[in-house]
Amino acid sequence: xxxxxxxxxxxxxxxxxxxxxxxxxxxxxxxxxxxxxxxxxxxxxxxxxxxxxxxxxxxxxxxxxxxxxxxxxxxxxxxxxxxxxxxxxxxxxxxxxxxxxxxxxxxxxxxxxxxxxxxxxxxxxxxxxxxxxxxxxxxxxxxxxxxxxxxxxxxxxxxxxxxxxxxxxxxxxxxxxxxxxxxxxxxxxxxxxxxxxxxxxxxxxxxxxxxxxxxxxxxxxxxxxxxxxxxxxxxxxxxxxxxxxxxxxxxxxxxxxxxxxxxxxxxxxxxxxxxxxxxxxxxxxxxxxxxxxxxxxxxxxxxxxxxxxxxxxxxxxxxxxxxxxxxxxxxxxxxxxxxxxxxxxxxxxxxxxxxxxxxxxxxxxxxxxxxxxxxxxxxxx
Length: 381
Ligand SMILES: Cc1cc2nc3c(=O)[nH]c(=O)nc-3n(C[C@H](O)[C@H](O)[C@H](O)COP(=O)(O)O)c2cc1C
Prior knowledge:
Elements: H1 9-19, H2 22-29, H3 36-43, E1 48-50, E2 65-67, E3 70-72, E4 76-78, H4 84-87, H5 91-101, E5 106-108, H6 116-122, E6 127-131, H7 137-150, E7 154-158, H8 168-173, H9 183-191, H10 193-201, H11 208-211, H12 223-230, H13 237-247, E8 251-256, H14 259-267, E9 272-275, H15 289-300, E10 305-309, H16 315-323, E11 329-331, H17 333-365, E12 378-380
Parallel strand pairs: 4-11, 5-6, 6-7, 7-8, 8-9, 9-10, 10-11
Antiparallel strand pairs: 1-12, 2-3
Helix pairs in contact: 1-17, 5-17, 14-15, 16-17
The protein binds flavin mononucleotide.
């Protein structure tokens, strides 16, 4: 199977599975507990149908949106994800370059493997810095100052991860950072020598957003330890209000689900909330973002921008979310598995297919602009 055989998300997933050691594939593909939330994230879109209008003469389609003051050519962006150079040796470099090619925003995780400075220097499209809240307040300030100095446009605080989710696939495969593999896991790495060769012959694995500030024990501290020991589970609205003030620019919360939390985010000056359950990787049994979207938009949509992510694998999923009032839609595994399958060309092909689907389906819907979509063109089953 080659990249040109990939025509949708499922094909990329198959190719990534062939190329990656099983612990890494399962780290990306897996979710918390029974993975019911992950499954619902995608299934939710099927409970709503699109109602097209005909004979509207749609020639050109404008897919651009403006979110948090950033103009994007597409209504989708690459949501921040950890450890990308583990999935493909070009990691964040590939994702940022592909996002720039399509004129959209890319997120860089606190657990990213390329520095926010390098990516900001090389690429023009808006960059998000995804941030976790540490016990050490001075560290939080230092990391925000660093992001500001780098020229990052948007600060995104992830609020659904005050403790790590229960990823049982990782327990079975022995996945951890740094690698502590059980015998089955090691065998998997041996079975995928091309990945192994690329991994050892490219730049050494690093977490540059953290390395400067946090002692990851020279590689002996695990990500699990980072979550339990460094992050602050007591983080509250007052803490975040202070951060919003300090940042003084577009600031959003990722992982909000309740309408009252969206209103509270507006009260403390956030520019946006992202409805998200972290791709089902945190609280299994959590509502899906799409199921929650209409209620949150109705409650808070006139006071704060509402975005969403989770389970998006098709252009029609995006059109349904935009119709319900999402200002933009985040992609996670949709671009990560193509990254793992084929690096930058993989991400570009995935974004290209998404753009084609969006354009074609907007025409079929009889809509020329994103703003022409509304709940009126949806029917609940
Ligand atoms: C492998 C992987 C790593 C992720 N790392 C982060 C992270 O470091 N910070 C964060 O806020 N979200 C992280 N996410 C969540 C994504 O930003 C996004 O919310 C989620 O993937 C959306 O669901 P989807 O994968 O079904 O599109 C990660 C997701 C995956 C799959």
